Amino acid sequence: MTESAFINRFEPAVSAGSPPLLLLHGTGGDENDLLGLGKMISPGSALLSPRGRVLEHGMPRFFRRLAEGVFDEDDVRLRARELGDFVSEARKQYGIAAPIAVGFSNGANIAAALLLLQPEVLAGAILLRAMVPLSDPPTADLAGKPVLLLSGQGDPIVPPGNSAKLAALLSQAGASVTHRVLPAGHQLSQADLTLARDWIGKVDAEAA
């Protein structure tokens, strides 16, 4: 790959036809964090898992923030473009279709930004504890793209109503959004895994 490459892990598909997944970790994670989750959500899928290139006190992230919940939106746009370029190059190298993003927290936010800025890069997304990434997003065409948004009712990081605003934003752009608010905080629960696995099974079946 070129200089746009991220440190990453790639695991090829073991089941032909399963949708490839783009795994995007949260703050302080790395390319190994969500591999197990990806395998549980969609056994057999190819897994592409990059490490965020921004460091916050030594912790990898996918874009800079100015404070908790306050994003450097110029950096969001820059990093989303970089990630989109990386995915495009990885697809050529590994011969995979457009992936479904599975992002947690900061990873979910960059996935949402990628949907809005470069819709063609992703086939859909599972957004775990995501926020609205851009205050003035471009008009995107997400017609037909499936999106699962899972929020925590007691999430201390995502402000009340923010995830609902994101769901509305993506729906207005044409995405087929399923939004569930779980009795959970910012951390993931068994319900997240179960819902994500069931959802991607339906998406896979409809695409077959």
TrEMBL record:
Any one GO molecular function term: hydrolase activity
Listed Pfam families: Abhydrolase_2
Gene3D superfamilies for this protein: alpha/beta hydrolase
Keyword set includes Hydrolase: yes
Domain of life: Bacteria
Record's keyword terms, sorted: Hydrolase
Occurrences of domain Phospholipase/carboxylesterase/thioesterase (ranges): 43-202
Matching SUPFAM superfamilies: alpha/beta-Hydrolases
InterPro entries: AB_hydrolase_fold (IPR029058), PLipase/COase/thioEstase (IPR003140)
Protein name per UniProt: Hydrolase
Organism: Bradyrhizobium amphicarpaeae
